[in-house]
Each structure stands twice: as C-alpha cells, then as structure tokens.
Amino acid sequence: MPGIPLSHGWTLHTLGAGDAVDVLGEPAAAVPSTLANLLGPLRLYAVPYIGCQGSRFFAAWEPPTGEDHSSVWLELADGIHLFLAFEGSTAHDTGFELLAAVGELAVPRLDDARFSAYARLLARELAEGASGEIDEDAFAAKQSAAVDYTAVSLASTIAEYVHALWHDVELRQGPEHLGPQWIRRRFELLAEWFPPHSGQQLFR
Fold first, then answer.
1. The whole model's pTM is what?
2. Which of 115, 116, 121, 131 lies closest to 173 in space, CA to CA?
3. Per residue, what are the HEC states of the chain?
4. Nearest CA to 102 among 167, 37, 6?
5. Bridge partners for 143 per DSSP
C-alpha cells in the first residue's frame, strides 16, 4: 500500500483516523530536512489505540485492557515504521508525539562528535547552576543515575526544537524547568546541526 505522501518522502497510512493528514502534516513538515534525512525512510501509521501484551504490540479499535501506548516503532530493512495512537489524545498532542519519536530515533543516529558536544553543553549548564530540564522525562533522567541523562535530554531537546519550528511555544517557569538562556543555547546548537527551512523563524 503506497500511503499518503508527506514531507521528506515520508508516507502516512491510516486506520480509523480520518483527520490524520491534517494532524500530522504540519509537524512532519516542520522537521528540518537534515534531521529527516538522518532518520531515512519513515512510514507513519495512524491507528485508534496501541495495546501491549508482553513484548507484543498491536493496534486496536477500542481502548485495550492493560497497558497502552501513544506511539511505538519498528526499525525494519525498508525503514522505520512508526505507529501513533489517535484516540484519547488532542491533535496537538498527537503531533507532538511524532516529534518526540523523531527525537528518540535521531539520538542513536548522531555521530560521536555531536553527542559529545551536547554532553559538554550539559556540563556547562550544570556549572552555571541550571537545576531544571526541558521536559519531565529529561528532568527525571537528570535526577537518576540509572539512565543515560545525556541521551534523554538530547531527544527531548530535539523534539522541543522542532516544536518551536512548528508553532509558537510558551516557556514553562519553575525550578524544575530549564531557563530561557539555556534553552536558547541548546536551540542554537541544534540549528547548526539541523537548520530550519527557509521562512521558518526559531526566535521571535
């Protein structure tokens, strides 16, 4: 099945999600081409729900009993197959779930030089007294020695960087959130790696 074409040569396949093109078209188009190229071929599947039984994931028409997920992906020989659950979520949250997946998929594909550069940026933030993080997952990772904080933070920052290219975003305040000076520095680094499209404005 060829699917519906999106930006970057990505394709969309729908199952009970008639507005999927409207919901996913804009956030997909906001992804910089260099970042999309890093991922390679991507097939999006818009499904009502995603359930889980052990190590098996499945699409469902009704809310599944037990564990459910907002997204899951398979990395196969013909590219990445990314499934997104549409029911029980707003259009914006579904679009952001796409960007969160892009961030997670991008991190293991970055070269060592870029990963090390981001790690140095985090070390500089800590030395400057940055106590917060860009989202809840990254903040939790910052407090834990059991996870790779650099990888989690980088994935979250990539997602929020593209989020800011997609539309205006409001910065959250508080000790658990990252201050605007540090967010700007992170975004400037990512803009060097993944330049915005012509006409996109990162800072206003």
1. 0.94
2. 131
3. CCCEECHHHCEEEECCCCCHHHHHHHHHHHCCHHHHHHHCCEEEEEECEEEEECCEEEEECCCCCCCEECEEEEEECCEEEEEEECCCCCHHHHHHHHHHHHHHHHHHHCCHHHHHHHHHHHHHHHHCCCCCECCHHHHHHHCCCCCCHHHHHHHHHHHHHHHHHHCCCCCCCCCCECCHHHHHHHHHHHHHHCCCCCCCCCCC
4. 37
5. none
Amino acid in the structure at residue 81: H
Residue with tokens 């990772």: 141
Beta strands 68-69; 49-53: pairing state: antiparallel
pLDDT digits (tens, 9 = 90+) for 4-58: 999 999 999 987 656 888 899 999 999 999 999 999 999 999 998 998 887 788 8
**Cβ-contact 74, 80 below 8 angstroms:** yes
At 64, the pLDDT band (50, 70, 90 cuts) reads confident
Return the domain boundaries, the chain: 4-108, 111-193
- C-alpha 1/C-alpha 25 separation (Å) is 19
How far, in Å, CA of 204 to CA of 11, rounded?
32
